[in-house]
Amino acid sequence: MSSYVNSSIRQKRINNYIGVYQLLDMVDLSAESPVSDEDIRPRLKLRDVSFPEGVDLTDANLSESQLINVDLTGADLSGADLSQADLTNSTFAEANLSQANLSYADLTDTTFDRADLSHATLSYVDFTNATFTDANLSSVNFSYAELNGADFT
Fold this sequence. Notes:
The chain is about 20% helix and about 5% strand. It is mostly helical. The chain has a two-stranded parallel sheet.
C-alpha cells in the first residue's frame, strides 16, 4: 500500500474515533440506567499519529485517552478535556489549548512551543522535560504540577 493510502485510512480511523466521542457526549444516561457513561466511553488510544495541522478538536472530551507520540501541531483544543490523559512525547506546537483541562495528565517529554495555554487547568500534571518555548501561559494553574527539567525559555 502506498503511504498516501495508509495516511488516508489512518485519518478515517481518527475521524471515526472522534465521531464516537462526539456521539457519546450526546447520550443521556438517566440515573435509573444500569450502565453509566463511564462504562461505555471508549478510551482513545493512538500512538505515532500526526493529525492534520489545524485540526479542530474544540471542546473535545479526550479524558483518560492515550495519545502517545502524537503530533497535534496547530490543533485547536480550546476547552478540550484531556484530564488524566497520557500524552507522553507528543507535540502541541502552535496549538490552541486555551481553557483546556489537562489535570492529572502525563505530559512527559511533550512540546508546547508557541502554544496558547492561557487559562488552562494544569494542576497535578507531569511536565517532566516538557518544553514551553514562547508559549502563552497567562492565567495558568500549575498547582501541584511536576516541572522537573521543564524548559520555559
